[in-house]
Amino acid sequence: MQPGEARDRLTADVFKGCDDDAIAHLERAFDLTVETARLRRRLHEAHIDSIEEGVGKGLITESEGERLRAAEAAVSHVIAVDDFEPSQLSPLAEKQDQQRRIRQTASRAGAT
Known about the structure:
Distance between the termini: 60 Å
Shape: elongated
Number of helices: 7
Mean pLDDT: 87
Oligomer: single chain
Number of domains: 2
Structural class: mainly alpha
Strand content: under 5%
Radius of gyration: 23 Å
Helix content: 55-70%
């Protein structure tokens, strides 16, 4: 999706987030991604994989590199997820884990 009338119309009554909540982070990542699209395209077309290389070769300025880094950090923050074992999320998964451990222990005992 791109900023503009269509997005504004589709999101007119949607909660935009406040202060430092997840939706506000998502909006910031979106804005920075759109803002830096031209810079990312420039690096891509020059077959440059890193911001540092782009700055080093003079393809982008250090200031532009900072904006790209900010966009990358914002996106990384939004897509970061907590990692949980299934057993931490569901009693059923915990029971299945216990049964698996019992089977593994029994098969090891039978192998010796």
